[in-house]
Structures are given as structure tokens and as C-alpha cells.
Design brief:
12 helices; alpha+beta; 6-stranded antiparallel beta sheet; disordered N terminus
């Protein structure tokens, strides 16, 4: 009789089977690394992590309504959120602009690890003398390290920021004496690595990085890296784990890695080796020489690392939370060469969902 009563009651009250909540993920759960081949990728849920689902949805909605076409959030390597807009999907690749600088920094570290170059080598050792329009004694001051730290001392107020022929590389100040965001010296790192390794930069990227971690869509076109959103997430996960993919160390030079993700010079405290750094006492921005007090993104975790590209290409890495967040797409309406107001606006919402800092 009790069963019949419940059955009739359900006709009028739309009884639903109550699914048990997913189990929470213990802090001791090892990080997951997706296979380097295929599309398999484990996921988890915001509920399992104890996150606020409604606040997470607000952050996702903000990303989607500001020209975001792809968004991935990883926790311990597992997908918490994967969203696409504007007819994108997991296989849609697009240029990541200056976010590719951080990938280049990783590859320079691998080349040094292999003994192909040293950061204190003079650039002329790989590009030959006369690779700039500087006087010979000033050109001789420039090393690979200066390219990585944006301190080559070249005049950066130029008509074409990407022009790297000698006539475009003129003297402003001695190398190491000034920080200025300048694409041309950065792009020459690709030429340096190619000269040092005897491989094209695309070949070096594929063999040393893309293939081992499964960045299957990685391709360089005119010095700019094209990736899909998952490729970006794989690189972020690799960085979150100090250059190791599971039990396979790709960049095992701990000294280089630590230098890459910490302040690299005395001018812009928030810049490492082509990585932007959160939580520092001051920061500078592209195109201007003003030093701003405080952290770049005060609503984000202090240890957050950022690969940032024009049109709001973002790879955020938070080692303390084992968290990677990727935003792919187009200009959110506030973008410059890398940093933009999207960064803090997004994290001010996401922090309410995660509730961990």
C-alpha cells in the first residue's frame, strides 16, 4: 500500500530520482595528465571540488560575453569547465599572439638544457656580427638573456614593432639598462634557437614540446604560434608542474625554470623570462615606461603566472591551487599587447567560485 501511495503521489509532484552528489576530490589526489595522443581527458565537477556553481557560471558567462570563444579550467589536470562559443570546438586553432612568448621561453630553456646555447652567450654568436645597427661595442653587450627579459636596450618606439632586420634595431641605451616590451628582439630568439640546434624552430617545437605533451595543433606561422584551447591548457599544465609531464621531465633544469617564473630584472618586477607574474610589488605595461605600484591582478592568486597575448589570449597558471585557466578568442574590448582589464575582472568572479584564497 505504501508503494502505491508513493506512486500516485509522484504522478502529481513529479518525483525525481535523487542522484548522490559526486565524491569530493581529496587534496592528496595525484594530478592527472591526459595522454599525448587521442582526445581522452578526465573531468571533475565544481560540486566535487566544493566550488560555488552559481559563481562559477557567472565567471563563465563573463568570459563568453566578452568575445571569448574557448574557455578551459583545469584542477589537478582534470577538466572542470570546457566551453566554446562562436561555432568553436575543441579542435579550433587560432593564433595566440604574444602568449606564444612564454612557449618560446620554455623552448630556450630546453635548448640550454641540451647544451646548445647559454643565456649569457652574445647574440652575435648565433646571428653573426652586424645583426643590428648598433656600434660594434654596443651590439656586443647584447646576450640571449636580454632577449628573454626585454632588456636589449633597442629603440622600441618604432614604426614596425616586429621588424628585426638591422636597420630596425637601433640604439636606445646599453643592454640591461632598461625594460621595454619589444617584439623584434623576442622574435629573434626563434632564429637563435634554430641556429643553435640546427633545426627549424617549428621542428624544435614539435620534437621537444608539442609531440611529448600532445599539443597536436601547434604550428608557427610568421613567428606567431597557433594553438587550440586544449593545446594551451596542456602547456599550462606542463608549466604548473615545473616542466614535467607526469613522470617525464621535459625541462629538468630547475635553475632555469625558477628564473623563468620569477622577476628577471630590476625594472619590471612582474616580468620573468617572457612570462608575466602576479603578486609582485610593482609592474610595468607595454608601450610605456611608467612603474605602477602593487600587483597586476589583485583579485587573482599571488603566485599566478600569465602567458598573455594581444586580443586577450590567456594562459593562467596557479601552482599553489594546481589550477590552469585558458581563455581563447578575440579582443574582450580592453586588450593591448598582453595584459588587459579582462584579467582582474575575470578573476574577481572566479575567486568567488573557488573560495580558496
Amino acid at each position: 500500500m505504501r508503494t502505491l501511495i508513493i506512486a500516485f503521489a509522484c504522478l502529481f509532484t513529479a518525483c525525481k530520482k535523487q542522484e548522490p552528489p559526486p565524491p569530493s576530490i581529496p587534496e592528496t589526489t595525484p594530478t592527472y595528465f591526459p595522454p599525448a595522443t587521442g582526445d581522452e581527458w578526465e573531468s571533475t565537477s565544481a560540486i566535487a571540488l566544493g566550488w560555488d556553481v552559481s559563481k562559477l557560471n557567472e565567471a563563465i558567462e563573463y568570459a563568453g560575453t566578452t568575445n571569448g570563444y574557448g574557455l578551459i579550467i583545469l584542477h589537478k589536470g582534470r577538466i572542470v569547465t570546457e566551453k566554446y562559443w562562436n561555432n568553436w570546438n575543441a579542435n579550433t586553432k587560432y593564433p595566440i599572439n604574444s602568449a606564444g612568448k612564454s612557449v618560446t621561453a620554455f623552448l630556450v630553456g630546453m635548448a640550454q638544457q641540451e647544451g646548445k646555447l647559454k643565456l649569457d652567450d652574445r647574440t652575435a654568436q648565433y646571428l653573426g656580427s652586424g645583426w643590428t645597427s648598433l656600434p660594434p661595442d654596443k651590439e656586443a653587450l647584447v646576450t640571449i638573456r636580454h632577449h628573454l627579459t626585454m632588456t636589449t636596450g633597442f629603440e622600441d618606439n618604432v614604426p614596425d614593432d616586429n621588424c628585426s632586420i638591422p636597420s630596425c634595431l637601433t640604439y636606445k641605451i646599453d643592454a640591461g639598462s632598461r625594460w621595454a616590451y619589444h617584439n623584434a628582439p623576442y622574435r629573434l630568439l626563434q632564429t637563435i634557437v634554430a641556429a643553435a640546434t640546427g633545426m627549424t624552430f617549428s621542428q624544435y617545437t614539435q620534437t621537444r614540446l608539442a609531440t611529448p605533451v600532445g599539443m597536436k595543433n601547434a604550428s608557427w606561422l610568421n613567428g606567431v604560434l597557433w594553438l587550440n584551447t586544449r593545446d594551451m591548457a596542456r602547456f599550462g599544465l606542463l608549466t604548473a608542474h615545473k616542466g614535467a609531464w607526469g613522470d617525464k621531465p621535459l625541462l629538468s633544469d630547475a635553475a632555469y625554470f625558477n628564473a623563468m617564473v620569477n622577476t628577471s630584472q630590476n625594472f619590471n618586477r612582474s616580468y620573468g623570462y617572457l612570462w608575466w607574474l602576479n603578486g609582485k610589488t610593482s609592474f610595468m605595461l607595454p608601450s610605456i615606461q611608467t612603474v605602477f605600484a602593487g600587483s597586476m591582478n589583485p583579485d587573482a592568486p599571488a603566485d599566478m603566472l600569465m602567458a598573455l597575448g594581444k586580443d586577450d589570449k590567456k594562459i593562467y597558471v596557479v601552482p599553489s591551487l594546481d589550477l590552469v585557466v585558458v581563455r581563447h578568442g578575440n579582443d574582450a574590448g580592453t586588450s593591448v599587447a598582453g595584459p588587459s582589464s579582462f584579467d582582474n575582472a575575470f578573476w574577481s568572479k572566479l575567486r568567488l567560485a573557488i573560495k580558496k584564497w
